[in-house]
Design goal:
Strand order of the largest sheet: 2-1-3-4-5
CATH class: Alpha Beta
Strand content: 15-25%
Largest sheet: 5 strands, parallel
Number of helices: 6
Distance between the termini: 10 Å
Number of strands: 5
Order of helices and strands: EHEHHEHEHEH
Oligomer: single chain
Radius of gyration: 15 Å
Helix content: 25-40%
Shape: globular
């Protein structure tokens, strides 16, 4: 059965390593016959959540920027995929801001059930992504019908293109195929 997959690439480097990982996952999901849309946070206007909680009654954010549009896409996706570079052993600030701004989804009848995390870091140890996994898992815990369906780590990559030729790209493509 075809699923609606939303891949959110959170790096500000559009040709960076986490973007390549996101693209490989998207390619695999497309190969499997799923409807895939990739959104990059690069160049998007994302204001911080104000904590006003108006969205808890209206299911709409009072801030009208790109985060509101992306959150609406998240609402109707069956599968969410976040791809992030690891900064100081945590997800990117852009990813955290997007998760916060997805607060209007909390009281909604959201479609997503499976959430994936793809991460890259200069550090080669997979433990480098534990903070990002913990942060995303905390967000997912607020959505009882959703689960963390998988994680993938590409370590030892710093400069744009370092991920080229690495096996983790094949693993991302395969993970996408199995959605």
């Amino acid at each position: 059965m075809s699923k609606k997959v939303l891949v959110i690439s959170t790096s500000l480097r559009t040709k960076g390593n986490s973007a390549a990982l996101a693209a490989a996952f998207a390619d695999g999901a497309k190969e499997a016959g799923h409807e895939v849309e990739t959104v990059s946070l690069a160049g998007k206007k994302l204001e911080f959540c104000r904590g006003c909680f108006v969205c808890q009654t209206t299911q709409k954010c009072v801030i009208q920027d790109d985060a509101s549009l992306i959150a609406r896409k998240m609402l109707t996706a069956d599968v969410l995929v976040f791809s992030t570079p690891i900064y100081y052993y945590e997800m990117s600030g852009q990813m955290k801001t997007m998760l916060d701004r997805a607060n209007p989804l909390f009281p909604s009848d959201y479609a997503f059930r499976d959430v994936y995390l793809l991460a890259v870091a200069a550090d080669e140890d997979e433990k480098a992504m534990e903070g990002a996994v913990k942060g995303l898992s905390g967000w997912i815990a607020c959505f009882p019908k959703a689960r963390l369906a998988g994680t993938l780590f590409g370590g030892g990559v710093t400069n744009v293109g370092d991920i080229t030729g690495k096996k983790v790209l094949d693993a991302a493509r395969e993970m996408g195929r199995k959605v």
